Amino acid sequence: MTADSQHPTLVPVVDGFAGAVGQTPLIRLRRASEATGCEILGKAEFMNPGGSVKDRAALGIIEDAERRGQLVPGEPGTVVEGTAGNTGIGLTLVANARGYKSIIVVPETQSREKLDFLRMIGADLRLVQPKPLRDPGHYVNTSRRIAEEMAAGGERVVWANQFGNLANGEAHEKTTGPEIWDRTEGRVDAFTCSCGTGGTLAGVARFLKGKKPGVRIVLADPMGSGLYSWVKTGEVKAEGNSITEGIGQATAVPGNLEPARGVIDDAVQVPDPEALEQVFDLLQHEGLSIGGSAGINVAAAIRVARQMGPGHTVVTILCDGGARYQSKLFNPEFLRARDLPVPSWLA
Fold it and tell me: Distance of CA 59 to CAs 63, 93, 97, 149, 278, Å?
């Protein structure tokens, strides 16, 4: 539907949860666009049925497991994953719709809202202490061990392995990238996105580069992550820290992202205050509630737009909504304790 349409296009009836994933709108970010002279568009992934961009990866991973025979619709099966929260939510909801169980391993430091939501939707939630990736107690390693033990006991189980499972990036190459291309009618000059697993950036980048080799692909990274350094120097080197959840890798390049290095043109590093400025500004002035990773994405899109100059179209991802981070991003005590800005309406 175009902006000047008088009558909305009728949306067809879709089949369950899976049918509702994707086809999210591109939202023109008015203040960012006016400040840069570019069209800055945010893909509203918080409008997926599970509330985040991770619904796409979750659906892609489970459908791939079914094609491989690791899961069989209508028969008992379990999906196991280690996650910062959103992928676990998506996997649990897809599993519910398919008749499977889910075991989700999450660091206990993640937002209370995501943990409560996982419990609410029926995930078997296993909380672990935050550990470095090399530690056996890291949430990813813990989830893999649980899946291996269940499989050894004869249970039908799949370890989702969102970081290394290439079905993650393929889901975005098949859906998110084409949607951006179609909605902009090919008039996309740059795409910027932060990375947790790297699936979104890798999949979208591959598709857009295939259509338009000159499109600029820029990785947006929080402080405390080494992916900015990896793009710039080839070495994963992390500096600083960030309150953002689910994005940034301090010590290793995710398996979904590694093969995409050749289609990534640049990287920008966004500190928390700059990201929070966009989170609060979009909520107060444009009525859009987004999480911290989306704030980093928008801040990065503004930087890229200013580098490229007026007249360009820059697309980014609005990964999820702000309600999942109320106890952190919108908690004055939490923000003040970290010398971060507090929005005026909460101060």
Answer: 6, 9, 11, 24, 30
Q: How many C-beta atoms surround the C-beta of residue 239 within 10 A? A: 12
What are the structure tokens assigned to 237, written together?
A: 């080197």
Please, are residues 259 and 211 in contact by the beta-carbon 8 Å criterion? no
Positive or negative: CA dihedral 243, 245, 251, 256: negative
Q: Using CA atoms, how far apart are residues 107 and 198, in angstroms rounded to an integer? A: 19
In order of 63, 78, 106, 164, the CA distances from 57 in angstroms are: 10, 17, 17, 12
Eight-state DSSP code of residue 244:
-
- Separation between Cα atoms, residue 102 and residue 267, nearest integer Å: 35
CA-based R_g, the chain, Å:
19
Distance CA 102, CA 93 (A): 9
3-state helix, strand, coil in the chain (%, to 5): 45, 15, 40
State residue 6's pLDDT score: 52
Neighbours of 119 (CB within 10 A): 12
Enclosing H/E stretch for 190: strand 190-194
Q: Who wins on pLDDT, 81 or 74? A: 81
292-342 pLDDT, tens digit each: 999 999 999 999 999 999 999 999 999 999 999 999 999 999 999 999 999
Q: Is 328 labeled as catalytic in the residue annotation?
A: no
Q: Are 180 and 209 within 8 A, CB to CB?
A: no
Task: Read off the tokens for 196.
Answer: 């947790």
Pairing outcome for strands 39-44 and 26-28: antiparallel
Active-site residue identified among 43, 54, 209, 328: 54
Length of the chain: 347
Q: Kindly state the helix (H) or strand (E) to which residue 172 belongs, with its residue range.
A: helix 167-174
